[in-house]
From TrEMBL:
InterPro entries: ESRP (IPR050666), Nucleotide-bd_a/b_plait_sf (IPR012677), RBD_domain_sf (IPR035979), RRM_dom (IPR000504). PANTHER family: HETEROGENEOUS NUCLEAR RIBONUCLEOPROTEIN-RELATED. PROSITE patterns: RRM (PS50102). GO terms for molecular function: RNA binding. It comes from the Eukaryota. Residues 165-253 form the RRM domain. Residues 136-159 are annotated as: Disordered. Gene3D superfamilies: 3.30.70.330. This is RRM domain-containing protein. The keyword Repeat applies. Keywords: Repeat, RNA-binding.
Length: 253
């Protein structure tokens, strides 16, 4: 699994909510975390390693978790947390890395381009990351659809699209499993075989998946979940087809 700090593969958004409730020590000392700190032997005091998080500014507004992972290619990405203001993406994000030493490598990407925009990379602090988690979770517990204004043509395009029984999901946490997606669509009858999580050429999740419903009526009804949250992430839904799903899945093989 790509997230070395979370070998159990559980969805990151749900863990974020527990982090926000329990405070910083929960994350630093949770079992299986790569940030686990144990006191050295012989009674000598030592400071725990710095929390390995950087902040990015100037991201494209259509940026995805996959884009950030590719930007930091070669580093271990534990979490990408996009920052929203008033329900809109601010162009900023936090990126938690697998090890403190990787922060220096991430800073070398400062002012390098993502697409046509250069991205600024800064050192950040544990408390800033936690504060943003709390803000994002608070917003998601409210009305996730209310605070996400969209162009009229965007909604009309989805509403008028032909349904074939297949939906494409975008914006999934990299750690999302088929069980997480089945829980997201718990009002519909789905099997693991009907869910296809796409991978890139390196075998890592892209943040997208395709779901095959029993019929076109179910997939159209499932569009009511568009822009609702899986954990603390907004999930976008698009009408799709078996052909598009097969093509996307085959690219990752």
């Amino acid at each position: 699994m790509f997230y070395r700090g979370y070998p159990d593969g559980r969805e990151m958004g749900a863990k974020r909510q527990r982090i926000a409730d329990k405070g910083p020590s929960f994350y630093a000392n949770s079992p299986g975390s790569s940030f686990m700190y144990n006191a050295p032997p012989n009674g000598y005091a030592s400071q725990p390693p710095h929390f390995p998080v950087v902040r990015l500014r100037g991201l494209p507004f259509d940026c995805t978790e996959t884009d950030v992972a590719e930007f930091f290619h070669g580093l271990d990405i534990v979490d990408v947390l996009f920052v929203h203001k008033g329900g809109k993406f601010s162009g900023e994000a936090f990126c938690v890395l697998g090890y403190p030493l990787q922060v220096d490598f991430a800073l070398q990407k400062n002012r390098q381009n993502m697409g046509r925009r250069y991205v600024e990379v800064f050192r950040s602090k544990r408390q800033d990351y936690y504060k943003t988690i709390a803000n994002e979770v608070s917003e998601s517990r409210g009305s996730p659809r209310r605070n996400i204004p969209r162009a009229k043509s965007y909604d009309e395009g989805k509403d008028s699209a032909e349904h074939t029984g297949v939906l494409r999901l975008r914006g999934l946490p990299f750690s999302a499993s088929k069980d997480d997606i089945m829980e997201f669509f718990k009002d519909f009858v789905l099997s693991e075989d009907s869910i296809h999580i796409t991978m890139n050429s390196e075998g890592r999740p892209t943040g997208e998946a395709f779901v095959e419903f029993a019929n076109a009526e179910d997939s159209k009804a499932a569009m009511a979940k568009d822009r609702m949250t899986l954990g603390s992430r907004y999930i976008e839904l698009f009408p799709s087809s078996v052909e598009e799903s097969d093509e996307a899945v085959s690219r990752g093989r």
